[in-house]
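[User]
If only I could read backbone structure tokens as easily as an amino acid sequence. I have put the entry right below:
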Amino acid sequence: MTPEEWMILAMGIVLACAPMLLIWTEKRTRARRLAVPALVTIKGYSVSPHAGFGAAIGVMLLYVSHAMRGTGISFVFMIFGVVALVVVLNHVQKTKAG
């Protein structure tokens, strides 16, 4: 791999970690008994700004994977995007109001 591809991969890894960090930050905020607003609530499931931004990052990683199709690194970005979306969806599922 060229140095440019290694740099792209490093940026992808950082972006892939962002949704997990955002969810962790939201959990810590809730643990301190501070309010976390909901952007939208559908059937009891609430999407916070943390989860919304994490989902946007996941979709962006999937888009980058699609834009880079034909190269070997595009598969890695697809995996990063899917993992990011799974983390966000799992978190939103846990927010179901009693």
User: Anything to note?
Assistant: The longest helix spans residues 3-31. The longest strand covers residues 40-42.
